[in-house]
Amino acid sequence: MLCIEDKQKFQRLLSDVAWFKTLPLYIELEAKKNNKPIVISHASMADVWDLKDDEKKQDIIEDCALWNIKEPKVDVPIFNIFGHTFHRCRYGLLLC
Fold first, then answer.
1. Does 92 reside within a domain?
2. pLDDT, tens digit (0-9, with 9 covering 90-100), for 13-49
3. N or C end of the chain: which has fewer CB within 10 A?
4. Structural domain includes residue 5
């Protein structure tokens, strides 16, 4: 990679990674939609929202909030605004 060959670019990359790590995994707004809390995340995490307070399940929450591409179920406990597009897969090889 070019950035590894250039120490200044590599340091910038490390700085960017450190900044990303300071960002919240999701944002839960005080507002509600359809009487459900509004949650903003990178990928859909509505299907695992019930695990958010379980210390032992944080890896599942993180994986879904960042990488999930499965279409969320209809009956979920939150109104989830997310940026990842979901994909239907005939082979069932989707995260979460």
1. yes
2. 999 999 999 999 999 999 999 999 999 999 999 999 9
3. N
4. no
